[in-house]
Amino acid sequence: MLTHQDAAAAGEALIGREVVAPLVTQRIKPSPRLLSRLLSLHEAAAHLAKTAPDILGKPEVGRAIDQALAEAMVACLANGHPVNEGRAYRHHARVMQRLEDTLRANPEGPLYMADLCKAAGVSHRTLIECCQEHLGMSPKRYLLLRRMHLAWRALRREDAGSTTVTEIATNYGFWELGRFSVVYHSMFGESPSTTLRRSPEDPGLGEASEVGLKFAEFA
């Protein structure tokens, strides 16, 4: 958690002034680029805590994560614009709630754009607007990341003697196997086949590599 004192100190160091809370509570909307950076860092930290918690015990790793998150948070607060919570905003919030309910009801299976549009009750164009506003990314990008992480979990869980990378990849909608391998390696730092062969008890270098790449890119 970023305390008021920490936020004030980070703001003074990074932008030359404190990040002061407004007198009246209001929502701040960062740019999609800044929000996407913050969400990516948060995702990387959560992934590391889940898959390789021992790494978090290293002081240099903890400090790097703290500093990167603080910098991203200050950038969002300092450059964000107050949100006018009018009818359109409330409509978009309801759309995102329906989207969240759909994802929660389908934690394992792959979902596609038509599924999300139908569940949210909006057109593709409106869904793009909602996701950019609330997630800082397009629904297509969000679905790709979700399916990639589902494939990663399956590869970690399954036995290399009873399944193949092709079977798992196609189960999650990746039929361009060459492209799947390239994107997978860029996200997790190792090939899908390496993950599949790895013991479930062995966190391996893939997870640490993913976090390192993300923090190197966004910090």
How is this structure best summarized?
The protein has helices at residues 4-15, 32-51, 53-56, 59-79, 87-105, 113-120, 124-135, 139-157, 165-171, 177-188, 192-197, 206-218; strands spanning 28-29, 81-82. It is an all-alpha fold.
What are the defining features of this structure?
single chain, 219 residues, mainly alpha, 12 helices, 2 strands, disordered C terminus
List the helices and strands and how they pair.
Layout: H1 4-15, E1 28-29, H2 32-51, H3 53-56, H4 59-79, E2 81-82, H5 87-105, H6 113-120, H7 124-135, H8 139-157, H9 165-171, H10 177-188, H11 192-197, H12 206-218
Antiparallel strand pairs: 1-2
Helix pairs in contact: 1-4, 2-4, 2-12, 5-7
* Rough outline: flat
Whole-Å distance between the termini? 18 Å
| Global structural class | mainly alpha
What sequence of helices (H) and strands (E) makes up the elements? HEHHHEHHHHHHHH
**β-strand amount:** under 5%
**Widest sheet: strand ordering:** 1-2
Total count of strands: 2
In helices, the fraction of residues equals: 55-70%
**Helical segment count:** 12
Mean pLDDT: 77
CA radius of gyration is: 19 Å
The main pleated sheet reads as: 2 strands, antiparallel
Which regions contain 5 or more consecutive residues with pLDDT less than 50?
205-219
Total domain modules: 3
